[in-house]
Specification:
The protein has two domains: 60 residues, 2,3-Dihydroxybiphenyl 1,2-Dioxygenase, domain 1 (Roll); 62 residues, 2,3-Dihydroxybiphenyl 1,2-Dioxygenase, domain 1. The chain contains three helices and nine strands, in the order βαβββαβαββββ. Helices cover 23% and strands 36% of the residues. The two termini are 25 Å apart. The chain is globular and about 45 Å long. Strands 5, 6, 7, 8 and 9 form a five-stranded mixed sheet that branches. A four-stranded mixed sheet has the order 1-4-3-2. With 132 residues, it is of the alpha+beta class.
Length: 132
């Protein structure tokens, strides 16, 4: 089975959010981008859909939570190295993200978490292959 995953997130300012994620090297896919949504490819088969709050409410058929005050989802990205985790976190912070919590360093993984400009939580993880 061939599967693609689309993570859909509501955003307050579509242009600001697009610029933020492009600074993280997520690639804009203009085929699925318009004035109410933007599609960014994170990795092969993994996409981020940014939707204006109005478009998101329309899609889900009701209200969405305010990600600045509560969280409905924690998006986790597994990266290939400890260094990639820290590098992407630093890019996110430089682009306007806020670090969330302390670094997680365990025998089996290294993880860092940030909140994007809309408050959505992203966890960057490297699992040590010799342990996992």
């Amino acid at each position: 089975m061939s599967t693609r995953i689309f993570v859909n997130l509501p955003v307050k300012d579509l242009d600001r959010s697009m610029a933020f994620y492009e600074r993280l090297d997520f690639e804009l896919d203009l085929r699925f981008t318009n004035d109410s949504s933007a599609c960014l490819e994170i990795a092969d088969g993994l996409y981020l859909m940014l939707l204006t709050e109005a478009r998101f409410r329309e899609r889900i058929g009701g209200p969405s939570c305010d990600a600045q005050r509560s969280s409905e989802v924690l998006v986790s990205l597994a990266l290939d190295s400890h260094q990639e985790v820290d590098k992407l976190l630093n890019k996110a912070v430089a682009a306007g993200a806020r670090v969330h919590g302390e670094p997680q360093d365990h025998d089996f993984l290294h993880a860092r978490t940030f909140r994007d400009p809309d408050g959505h939580l992203w966890e960057l993880v490297h699992q040590y292959p010799d342990v996992v």
